[in-house]
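look at this:
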Amino acid sequence: VDELKLLQYNDNCNVNNNDDSDMDLDPSLAMERLYERRGKMFGVLVCKVPNSDSDSVILKAYAGKLGGQWNLPGWAPIIGRVPESLPVFNRISAEVTEIFGMIDDINFSTQGGAADADADHHAGEGVGNERGQSQSQPQTQTIDERVKQLIKERARLANLALEEVRRHQLVTNFRGETSPITAIYSRGPTKLPGGVGDCAAPKLLAEAARLGLQPTGIAEIFIGATGGMSTTKGDGQFYDACEQRCEQIAGFMLCGLDVVVEES
């Protein structure tokens, strides 16, 4: 808690000491944005430099994206590579977007067709009406089947895109060992949910290991809109690492930390 207050104090000082700071601020990164739609988890990791009497080093991270950006200067980066920098991911994403458009076109045309069919129904009431209904039913079934096929294909492509991202998510622990994130998830690679490695805690640990620092304390806090479809977390509340994602990879990430502590 004290470290978070210190970070806030330093940020305020930086703003107050720079008259042009308001011009340089990105509106998409404003705190107010976190209360407009959905809040976000933030974290700080207090570290020591092994075998050194220097002051503590404080790392900071946010979960997922902030202001539409995966990486921001001064913040712990994502584990792996930015998805949009991967050619295969971009190609698959374009195909997914195309399928979304195809489904929208079908739904739009179906709605128009339904209106025409309704007009024909009233105009042709009487002789031949039952025959018209029997002809339209197979057509409707064919359209529904096509939509189902597109949805299935969209899900398949989305999984391929996620696999491409995870292929580049290599995690290095404090022992210097590197492994794909799919291999270190304790519940097995087939149980790996989306977003593993994108939370604040894994980002902080990965960055500390990369810099050769010794973590001594961590805190994660939720800031922003709460309730409803947004989240069940409370604004300004501290939380432990999530069980489904972070805790399942923390074991590997912390390997070797005891050796770092002993050496320091």
Remarks:
- Confidence is low (pLDDT under 50) at residues 1-23.
